[in-house]
Amino acid sequence: RDSGGKLSPGLPAKLFKLQRGKCACCGKPLGDDYHLDHIMPLALGGANEDWNIQLLRPKCNLEKHKKDPIDFMISRGFLL
Fold this sequence. Notes:
alpha+beta; 80 residues; two-stranded antiparallel ribbon
């Protein structure tokens, strides 16, 4: 919104294919109601650019909210 940047048209479809229809967080199927998520949240200085976007299941995105991505994944046991 006020963060600048611009997402490419067709980005969700491209990410869906790249992610093989799976949530970038939990690996479960995205379904039809997936969310576009800023990997590094805008609130923490993330960019509103294609490279900072991933698709998440609604449950994962709502749990992540505006947390630092590394801290969030550590809390889920994915990183050492």
